[in-house]
Amino acid sequence: MSDYRTPRILWGVLFGEKLSRICGIIFLMSFEKQQKKLRVGWFTFTCCEDSTVVFTEVLNDYWQEWVKLIDFRHARVLKTKNVLDDLDVAFVEGAISSEEQASKLREIRTKSKVLVAVGACAVTGMPSAQRNDFDKETMKEIGYIMDRFHHLDKVQSLSDVVNVDADLPGCPMNADDFVKVVNGALETFNIVEKK
Is this prediction's pTM over 0.90? Predict the structure, then answer.
């Protein structure tokens, strides 16, 4: 808990001791009533981002409820200033097609208590991983693209790179299943009471 004496001393100088006690009590009450929030990140790698579209559509229905319960720490689709720090849940969409993406995914994993693979590309690597089965001639044709973007030889699912705690398969993910996972996380991390 924060030390409330400093503001109280300041209020005492400005407003007198009696009012400073009242202000100190109000300060403590507001501090104690602050709602603990679920710290969430939404990340996207190699995919068509159809689950991101579903995510934003779900928010149309749940925003008023969830904004009081969820701190979206990282979600480029929602805000420009994103933070990758201590997350309760990281939702990760897309397959891994470069070492840079693999490195970023490992960082997300270390900073997340729970990592959820979202969509077919994240869960299975497909359809992004179709090039893994290309013949030599086709691979030669796309070689300059792979070199230009520093792609790995093989596209990987998230579980090929890090430990994944849960999957939301589909192309795109099922909206109802996503809501269930979010509501389950709110209960698991004691943001809301278990039903």
Answer: no
Cα dihedral 140→146→151→154 (10° resolution) = -20
Residues 30, 55 within the same domain: no
Residue for token pair 């693999």 = 102
Tens digits of residue pLDDT in 124-139: 999 989 999 999 999 9
Q: Is residue 195 part of a domain?
A: no
Q: Is the CA virtual torsion 105, 108, 113, 119 positive or negative? A: negative
The two tokens of residue 148 are 């230009």
Residues 62 and 19 in one domain: no
> Which tokens sit at 87?
């997350």
Its domain, for residue 3, covers 1-34
Question: Are 55 and 9 in the same domain?
Answer: no
Helix (H, G, I), strand (E, B) or coil at 130: helix
